[in-house]
Write a structure and sequence with these properties.
binds fe (ii) ion; 177 residues; Four Helix Bundle (Hemerythrin (Met), subunit A); single chain; 7 helices; disordered C terminus; mainly alpha
Length: 177
């Protein structure tokens, strides 16, 4: 499996969850809570591992730097929307609106990723590299899933730092645990 196939597989799953989310009845509290938890459990490890494995490889290369940083920004925006949805009360009338915003933001992001970003990555990485990246991605994801919110946030900060510093940051973090 290549990194592109591994990411696409997750994208299909999250799109299905988002469709379920916006189709919910307003008072279906339990299901809404479940779907949001599931999106969070899938989306955050996906995004962190994707940043660590693919975005960080891309942004080392001049040709792909901007597109990788654009992806980072969209991850932050989607995660902020997800957190605010989780904090919203069911009686909040803008809940559905925010759910649609999240769905649209993530679908747009996936389109960008599978389009522009994959096209550039496929020009820059060999088939063997794409397979190795998929293995790294699948290894990393469950580890991130086990971490709490604070560590996942630190991972995002580390992924955003220039790789030279982020390596240091990650080492520091491991020794701290
Ligand atoms: Fe993705
Ligand atoms: Fe992404």
């Amino acid at each position: 499996m290549t990194i592109y196939e591994a990411l696409e597989k997750d994208h299909v799953a999250v799109k299905k969850l988002l469709a379920d989310l916006v189709a919910l009845n307003k008072d279906d509290d339990q299901r809404r809570h479940q779907i949001l938890e599931q999106i969070k459990d899938d989306l955050i490890p996906h995004a962190r591992a994707e940043e660590a494995v693919l975005y960080n490889s891309l942004r080392m290369l001049d040709k792909a730097k901007d597109i990788a940083m654009h992806g980072f920004r969209e991850h932050m925006e989607a995660e902020a929307l997800l957190r605010s949805l989780q904090a919203m009360d069911k009686l909040d009338t803008s809940w559905k609106e925010t759910a649609w915003k999240l769905k649209e933001a993530i679908e747009h992001h996936i389109q960008d990723e599978e389009g522009r970003l994959f096209t550039i990555a496929k020009q820059l990485f060999t088939q063997d590299e794409a397979v190795a990246m998929a293995e790294a991605f699948e290894t990393l994801k469950p580890k991130i899933k086990e971490e709490g919110f604070v560590q996942q946030t630190l991972d995002m900060v580390a992924n955003l730092m220039p790789p030279r510093f982020s390596q240091k940051f990650k080492t520091f973090d491991i020794t701290r645990r």
